[in-house]
Write a structure and sequence with these properties.
- The protein is α/β, with parallel strands linked by helices and 348 residues long.
- The chain has eleven helices and eleven strands.
- The strands form two sheets. The protein has a six-stranded mixed beta sheet, sandwiched between helices. Strands 2-1-3-10-4 form a five-stranded mixed beta sheet, sandwiched between helices.
- The longest helix has 35 residues, at 256-290.
- Mean pLDDT is 91; it is low at 1-30.
C-alpha cells in the first residue's frame, strides 16, 4: 500500500512537470514579435548601392529596437532586375530595388526622369527624382509604397577617338541600351545594345567605337582601359532612376511608429545614395585621368547643337504622356527648371 502511494506521488509530480513544460512563459511586458522582411536588390553585393541597402536595413533594425528585421538578397538572387517591381507587388519580396527603365512602359510618367536634360551630378539627379515622384504621386506606383528613389550621375560619351563636335558622331557605333539608344540616333550615331558586362570586350575588339555611360562605369567595369577619350557631354547628361519600393500590404500592416521610422531613415538615405553616386563618378574620373585619357570639352556652340538634337525626344515624351492622360508637360517643365537651377548653382 505504501509503495502504491509513493508511486502515485511520482506520477502526479511528473504530470505537473509535463503540464508546466507545455506552457509558454508569459511575454515580457511591452515586447513585440519581430517583423521579418525580405529585400531584393539587383546590384551585386560588392556594389556600393547594395552595401547602402544593407546599411539601411541595419539602421531600421537598430531604430526599431530589433522589431523590424530585413534580410537583403543582392545580385538579383530573389528577383531579377526586370522582375523586381512586380515581385514586390506580388509579395515575392517585401521590398525591392531596381531601375524603372528595366520594365519600360510600366512607368510612363517616371520615364521622364531618364531623359537627357543635362543632369549635373548624382546628388542633384537623386534629389530631383525624389521630389518629382513625391509631388506628382504617379498612379503607376500606387500599387506599392514608394520609399525613395535615387539616380546616378550624368551619362556621358566615352570613345576610342576624340569626339569634339556633332559631325564626329556620324556613323559611330555606340553602345547604348533602352532610351539611350534614341539619344544616339538623334545625335547621328548608330546604337548597339548590349549589357555592361559585354562592353569592355566590345570596345577592345572594335565591335563598338564608343559607349554612353556614367563616369563611374569607366572604373567599376574597367572600361576606361579600352577607351581613349571622354567627351564632356553633360549638357545632355541623362540618368537612370532606381526605386526602393515596399509591398503595400506589408507596409499597411506595420504600426504607425514603425512606418514613421522607416520613412525617416529612407529620407536620410536619399542623400547617402546620391553622394555615393557622386563619389563613384569622382573615382571613375580619377581612374581615367590616371590612364592619361583625353578629356574632350564641347564648346558653347556645340553644346547648343547637342541640346537641340535631343529636344525632340523630350517633346515626344511629353506628348505621349499627355495622350495617356498624364501630366507629361508639367512633369517635364518641372524637371527642366530643377536641372537649370542646379546647374546654375554649380556654375555649369
Amino acid at each position: 500500500m505504501k509503495t502504491n502511494y509513493s508511486l502515485w506521488l511520482v506520477v502526479l509530480a511528473c504530470t505537473v512537470l509535463a503540464a508546466g513544460c507545455g506552457k509558454q512563459a508569459p511575454a515580457a511586458p511591452g515586447s513585440k514579435k519581430p517583423v521579418k522582411l525580405t529585400y531584393s536588390v539587383f546590384f551585386p553585393p560588392t556594389h556600393v548601392q547594395a552595401k547602402l541597402a544593407v546599411e539601411w536595413a541595419d539602421e531600421i533594425r537598430k531604430r526599431t529596437g530589433g522589431q523590424v528585421q530585413i534580410t537583403v538578397f543582392s545580385g538579383g538572387a530573389l528577383t531579377k532586375a526586370d522582375q523586381c517591381y512586380q515581385g514586390v507587388v506580388d509579395g515575392v519580396s517585401d521590398i525591392g530595388m531596381s531601375a524603372f527603365a528595366y520594365t519600360r512602359g510600366r512607368f510612363p510618367l517616371l520615364e521622364g526622369l531618364d531623359l537627357p536634360v543635362g543632369y549635373p551630378d548624382g546628388i542633384s539627379a537623386t534629389r530631383m527624382a525624389n521630389a518629382l515622384t513625391a509631388k506628382f504621386k504617379p498612379a503607376e506606383t500606387q500599387d506599392t509604397k514608394m520609399l525613395y528613389v535615387h539616380a546616378h550621375g550624368p551619362g556621358v560619351l566615352a570613345t576610342k577617338k576624340p569626339v569634339a563636335k556633332l559631325g564626329d558622331l556620324k556613323g559611330l557605333k555606340i553602345r547604348a541600351t533602352g532610351f539611350c539608344a534614341k539619344v544616339v540616333e538623334s545625335l547621328g550615331g548608330s546604337p548597339v545594345s548590349m549589357p555592361q558586362g559585354e562592353t569592355y570586350e566590345a570596345l577592345q575588339k572594335g565591335v563598338v567605337d564608343a559607349t554612353f555611360c556614367p563616369v563611374e562605369t569607366l572604373k567599376g567595369w574597367k572600361q576606361g582601359e579600352v577607351v581613349n577619350c571622354l567627351t564632356d557631354s553633360r549638357c545632355i547628361g541623362y540618368t537612370t532612376a532606381f526605386f526602393v519600393a515596399m509591398n503595400k500590404g506589408k507596409w499597411d500592416a506595420l504600426p504607425a511608429d514603425v512606418q514613421k521610422t522607416i520613412e525617416s531613415v529612407s529620407a536620410e538615405w536619399v542623400v547617402k545614395h546620391g553622394q555615393a553616386w557622386n563619389d563613384a563618378d569622382a573615382e571613375g574620373l580619377a581612374f581615367v585621368k590616371g590612364l592619361k585619357r583625353e578629356i574632350v570639352p564641347l564648346d558653347a556652340a556645340e553644346q547648343t547643337l547637342w541640346v537641340e538634337k535631343v529636344t525632340p525626344l523630350l517633346n515626344d515624351y511629353a506628348t505621349r504622356a499627355t495622350q495617356k492622360g498624364l501630366p507629361g508637360e508639367a512633369f517635364l517643365n518641372e524637371l527642366k527648371t530643377s536641372v537649370a537651377e542646379a546647374r546654375a548653382a554649380q556654375g555649369k
